[in-house]
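Repro case for the chain-ordering regression, as requested:
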Amino acid sequence: MRRIGLALAWTMLTLSVVFLLAPLAVTIAVSLSPSPVFELPRDELSLIWYRQIGALDGLLPSVLLSLEVAAIATAVSLVLGTLAAIAVVRGRFPGREAITTFLVSPLMLPGLVLGIALLQYFRSLGLREALPTLLLAHVLVVLPYVMRTLTGGLSLFDFTLLDAARTLGLSWPRAVLQVMVPVLAPSFLTGGLFGFLSSVDNYPVSIFLTDVYHKTLPIQLLQYIGESPDPTIAAVSTLMIGLTVLVLILGERLVGLDRMAGV
Amino acid sequence: MPNGVVGSPNGVVGSPDAYLRIDRVAKRFGRATVLDALSLDVAEGEFISLLGPSGCGKTTLLRILAGLLTADAGRVTLAGRELGRLPPHKRNVGVVFQNYALFPHLTVAENIGFGLRARRVPKPEAAARVARGLEMIRLTHLADRPVTQLSGGQQQRVAMARALAVNPALILLDEPLSALDRKLRETMQVELRTLLRALRMTAIFVTHDQEEALALSDRIAVMNAGRIEQLDAPRAIYDRPASPFVLDFVGLSTTLSGVVERVDGPMLEVVTALGPVRVRGQFVRGARVLLAVRPEKIGVGSGAGNVPGAGPRAGNTATIRVADRTFLGRSCLVHGVAAEGDRVVLETSNDMGERVVPGSDLLVSWRPEDTLLFPQVAG
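-- result from build under test --
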């Protein structure tokens, strides 16, 4: 009985992993195929689609825009999220739970709803510029990740450490910088990283707020597929997979993935 | 609290050259008075324990001394310098926290050197002082370990070394041994005392463990409800408690309430549940008093109460019904009940304890001099 159960569990696990990894494998394979349509390579590999990337119109600006928006939104969220998390974890005021839920709620809301709501809201405020509205919206996208990991990290943080640092000769701000920030580094890194990735990745919120001159990477990619569906997109995707793996390896080296996933 | 007894509670006027002077320090949290105009003078190199139940204000006082809390009123001077509203990092007061508060992201050596780095001590000197600190706590071989890998006793020692490394003018210890198991705690008590003596460090030690306070301190301040009930040497605290609170908090005793029946010069005769008890003291006839005797002062048989040279009626004797015995290792406690339900506890040798049968009557005696006397608090 036990062995059957175990075998079943392993089968499920294998199937899940295959199901999750197959699209990645297919994408990478397609990007290496010489065929001009989406097709798995048969007998020879080619890097032709990677060379095509340079010829894509407007790719670089969209990559830069996405990185810029994600970086600024993550930085702002880290500051705001940390302060909010401190207030919620340390403070004694009514409605703390409600505030936590509220700040995490964009994560539970369909992006489409959030996008439409923000579009109408910004319009009614007279805010029509693409960049500021994108930035504000992406703060909302990133903040829940930061908020969640930091409330977790902070609720385990021993604030006596700050007292100890102060009695040892550090002023309060220096104690925060030299003790609290390094101790909470895994939370900052995890929250920041996932927030950053979800911002780069975001389509449903961004689509309502971009204009002709400001297209984020996912929007630009979707447009390419509509215009000329060739494996260049697969090549771009493969590069992004590589970048993500690199970031994860760095995270593992710096704090350890188990610690990052733990908070 | 009515006070016809020895002791010097609040408002102690100490010598003008006290090293640490706490002068009428008060602190309230909302409507609760946590420290009630508390004063205390500490000499240089002295080891003082603040002993009291939780909520008596001892930790609050410690945090005020460290600068982590601000007092509502009063002054604190340390080595001639008024601490006032100085922030913690400008006080040069070391603290060992109850949970040690070691920095989990740093190694043992980095923890010990933390205060030196904060004070921007030049690197070669800091390294030498960290090495000396490691040697002092005998953890040189673990210098580069993360502190999270140490045992409780080792962490405690690192916390001590970290606080001492900056050579503070005063060290505050907030129940630093309470997280350790009993055996280790006793070893660490000796180690801590020896270390602080060798450094001639002035120390204030907060604890709710009376044995720890008795074992370590030069003087003990027994605290209750934001005030110092008694400030004295450990022996005096135990032998001559200033109030029923101190009596009850420090050590075991048999307590009896009674009424003064006869005044005979310096001696009183008090009627209690155990019969008449003779005690030295000054009260008027009819006064309601509280009597107490420490367990080791009561002996089995009528002989223990005899005073050499005095008449046979000099001692106090009583018959109790034995309820239970507790074997302590070195000795044995016998618990008895007097006629009206008052409990009597006496300490005796193991051999004697074995011979006492629960349920039987036992004749016990003690000397009038060993009887402690307090006014009965109304209510």
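Ordering looks correct now. The mean pLDDT of chain B is 88.
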